[in-house]
Each structure stands twice: as C-alpha cells, then as structure tokens.
Amino acid sequence: MRIAVPIWNGRVSPVFDVSTRVVMVEDGEGCPVRKEESIPDDPVAKTEKLAGLGVKVLLCGAVSRHVAGMLDAKGIRVIPFLAGDVDQVLDAFFKGSLPSSDYAMPGCCGRRRGGGKGCGARRRCRKGGC
Amino acid sequence: MAGRKKAVRTDATGAILESISDGVFTVDERWKITSFNRAAEEITGIARREALGKQCSDVFRASMCETDCALRRTMESGKPIINKPAFIIDSEGRRIPISVSTAILRDASGRIAGGAETFRDLSVVEELRKELEGRFQMGDLVSRSPVMRRIFDILPQAAASESAVLVQGETGTGKELVARAIHGLSPRRNGPFVAINCGALPEALLESELFGYETGAFTGADRRKPGRFAAASGGTILLDEIGETTPSMQVKLLRALQEKAYEPLGSNETKKADTRIIAATNRDLADLMRRGTFRRDLFYRINVLRIELPPLRKRREDVPLLVEHFIAKFNLTQGKSINGVSPDVTALLMAHDYPGNVRELENIIEHAFVLCAQGTIEPRHLPESFVARMPVERGCGNVRTSLRAAEAQAIAAALERNSYNRARTAAELGVHKSTLFRKVKSLGIVLPPEDGRYKRNKDSA
Residues of chain B with pLDDT > 70: what percent? Predict the structure, then answer.
C-alpha cells in the first residue's frame, strides 16, 4: 500500500489544496521505502498525479471538501487535518494510532473525514478525542 | 505610576482587540501563536486555548502559509502588508475567503518581538458579490438559475470520478456543453473529446462508426478504420441520443461500458476501451425501460450519476444573461461591436417559450447579428417567424411592450394548463370568455384547431 503525506519544512503541509510536495512511503514487506515527489498546484492534476502514483492513503493537513471529494472519487482514503513532523505522523499511522488528538490540527480533534463534526471555538473537545 | 499606566493601556488594548470583528493573532519569533482574539476564534472555529502556543500555520491554515506568508515577508522587509487576499480552510473543510494585513511587534527596547496578523472574513462580501453579479459559469455554460448552480456544484466531483454520467434534457439545453465541461474538469482533459449522435445513424453504420472496422468487413471496406471509441482513447466519448439506439446496439454498448472492451466489425480481436463514457438523451429513459424499448441493465449502467438540465422556459432569468453571452461571443467571432439588445427585444425574448431551448436563442441572436450592422439589436433584426409568433406593437414604449408580452405569456400558459378549454381558462384568469377571445386575438396567440371541449366530446363519444 502506498501512502502519501504532503510535506513542508519537514512538517505536514498545512493546506493540501496548495501543497506542492509529497513524501511517499510504500508499506509492504521489509523496510518501508520513502521518497519525495513534486505534485501540481491544480487540484484536478494533483488528484490525478496521486492516483497515477498508486497512492491509496493520503495523510494531510487541511483539505477543502471540494478536493476531498475528488480524492474520494479516485479511491484515495484521506486522513485530514493532521499536524506535526511528517516522520512522526507516518510512524503513528503505521502503529494504527491515527487519527489521534496528538497529531490533530487545532480545532480538529483527530477525526476522520465525515466521522463527526468539528469542535472548534463553538464545539469544545477534550484531549483524547471528541 | 508608570507601571499602572502601562497596565491600563494593556487592558484597553485587550478590550479593543476583543471587541473588533477582524481576527487578530500575534506570533513570537518561532512562529508560535502568542495571542488570539475573539474574532479569530469565530472566523477559524478554533478556541483560543487550543490555538495558543501552536505553530501559526497549523492554526491559520491559509493558502499563503506555505507559498507566500505575508507575515514572513513583513518580518523580513520591515514593511506592513495591507489586505492581501487568501483563503483559509476551517475544520469542516470550508474555504473561507479572507484578506490579511500584517505588522511587526517590537518590545520596549525597539527589538523585534514577533508579528501581528489581522484578517477579515470576506465570505459575506464574496456572497454579495456573486449575488450582485448573479452569474455562475462553468466551461461554456452560463446561468444564474439556482437549479443550474446545483448542477455546477456537482460537476467537479462528477469529473473526478470515472463513473458513467447520464445527461438528460430537452433538445438544445446544452447536454453536450455539460459533457464538455465534465471532460474539461476531469483528469482526461488533455485527451480527446469525441461526440457521436447515436440517433442520426442506422445501426450498422453506428456500429462501424463507434467500434471501427477491419479491411474486408463489408463491401467497400477496402481499408481498416478505427472507430470513435479508439479515437476517444484516453479521453471522453459522448453518446448523444442514446435512447434512440436499437436493442442489439444496446447490448454492444453495454459490453463496452461493463467490460471496457469491444470488437471492431470483421475482427475477432478484442480491443480495450480506455474511454470515459457520458450518455445524453432527450427522452425519458426510465419510461423507455418500462416500455421495454431500452435495456434495463444498460439503463442502470449509464444511470450512475444523472444530471437533468432544465428547459430554458423554466429558467427564464437566464435569458438576458445568455443574450449577453452570445452577443459577446458573436462580437468576437464575427468582428462586430454590437452593444446589446433594445428593451423591446428583451421583452420579446423573455416572453418566448423556446421549444428549441438555448440553441434556439443562440440562433435568434446569430440571425440578428447578420441583419444588425452595429449599435443595438432591434425587433426588426429578429427572425420574422419569431416576431410573427409574438406580435407586439412596436414603438409604444417599453412598459407597454413588456406588459403585453407578459399578458400574452400568462394567457398562453393558462390555456395550456386548461388543455385549451376557453371557458375554464377564462374562469381561472377571472375574466369573461369574450374578453379572453378578444385578448387572444389582439395578442396574436395561436390556438390549436381543437379545444378542451372538443377533445372531451371526442373522448366521450
């Protein structure tokens, strides 16, 4: 399975819609293979490129519904609104601990897309999930 | 004393920051959030306690963070930035348009202690701008109708998926334009877009056109010819008027859709069809399926995502917008500078029912372009057949023209609703039968030879 994480300064890129580089990791037998790829700015081309690269899971920061819908249509599972160091986020994913409040963007509580409502200023949440 | 003054000033600043409707946050030199006002909480949907101490890009999530951070530029140049446009993404995945202004924060000794960013939610302004402009455009489709807006909203997702799309709508509503818009937004947009009218060709010819043929497949096939499916490889094929295909052709189309495979005429070799299929029809396919003339399995295969285009008479608000669009288009293609249509023409165009939909309106404007050398399109430039159907006194002032057109439209609609039964129509409109007759005659409304009464008598006979 191929996993991609948009990267910026070693951290998960804050806004996937405008990010231009991804780290790709192949989760198979043996040691995971890690490499970086540039991705286009345009959301349609970006989605197409990731699908073309065989990406099955995208671990990303903020993503707009419009772009998330396109990724979904391409069969790419999205775990959005993640923040933190890319390697630590990937590590958490491989340990099966994502989504998690430890790597959630502020106001996002570490949830899956469509798995619940946001809990920002109007919907408070406790550490550890909503 | 000085300390108390400073504390008062800090309290006052805090109160002001809390009361304003612009979001304000400050960062230290490590880009960690050090303050976050009430409006910032409201706009981003993030509680202050969650934001404080966090990396500003993870909290703010603006389109500019990664590529062109306004605050970073201010910190580097020392110059403030005012009202830079961007968008942020809230935790619900909504894009919120904002404008950003920045400033440097200095401590008492004048040393840079961080930066301050002010941002304004432009969602309302943006909505108002759209409302004022009242115009939505996607590809060559223009509309201000809410029904069409909903269609525009689903097009990007329809484009991103590989699923079959069925576009239904009366002739001339723009089914091909929708198919082109989907192709243009899809990952296949650099591939070819091929449209074929399935209703225009007999079955044998349609099969050879779609799937191609090998040399010697039939008399006269002296060389191999690839079909439209091959021509659309890597792109999109539009099967227009799919409701007109024969049952045996439907079986072949089903195979191409289901197995993405087909055989050219006279060939045993199976070809792969790497083509996105969009089907279009002006018929009610569900009804054809119930009557047994359209295959159930093909119907369900192409009916994955259905887009129903409303006829122009159900979105009359689009007529002036489309007129403007076609004038701009013909000005460009014909090198003219027509500046618009006269109010009389607008009234005539608004009152028409457009059985030929947008294509009919385009033809009317194209006809007017031939006759109108410059300036404004007047009723005399419109096709005679069109004006004859809508006899409106000319030169009587705009209000009167519009009133007569509206009156004619209301009477025609009432007649249609009442199956042309004059007595029932007059009762619905609250006028005497003779008044209705007089109005019908003076407005030049054409009535069918038989009326509702005649039909009822015939039915009961």
Answer: 88
Residue B149: the pLDDT is: 82
Q: Dump the DSSP string for B234-263.
A: TSEEEEETGGGS-HHHHHHHHHHHHTSEE-
Please provide the CATH number assigned to the domain covering B404-461. Answer: 1.10.10
The label of the residue with tokens 């002036």 reads: B320
Average pLDDT estimate for B254-272? 85
* Strand arrangement of the beta sheet that strand B33-36 belongs to: B33-36, B23-27, B112-121, B95-106, B84-89
User: B17-126 has which fold?
Assistant: Beta-Lactamase (3.30.450)
Which residue has 């490499």 as its token pair?
Answer: A35
Of B59, B63, B187, the CB nearest to A106: B59
**Best of B32, B57, B154 to disrupt the A interface by mutation (most A CBs within 10 Å)?**
B57
The whole-chain average pLDDT of chain B stands at: 84
Please give the CATH topology (third level) of the domain spanning A2-103.
Answer: Nucleotidyltransferase; domain 5 (3.30.420)
Q: How far is A33 from chain B (nearest CA, A)?
A: 26
**Phi, psi dihedrals of residue B230, rounded to the nearest 5°:** -65, -40
| Residues of chain A positioned with their CB less than 8 A from the CB of B59 | 105-107
Q: How confident is the model at residue A129 (pLDDT cuts 50, 70, 90)?
A: very low
**Is any Cβ of chain B less than 8 angstroms from the Cβ of A31?**
no
- Would the CB atoms of B66 and A19 count as touching at under 8 Å? yes
CATH number of B317-390: 1.10.8.60
A73 vs B contacts (CB less than 8 Å): 157, 160-163
Contact A15 B65 (CB under 8 A): yes
What ipTM does the predicted assembly reach?
0.82
CB A17 to CB B156 under 8 A?
Answer: no
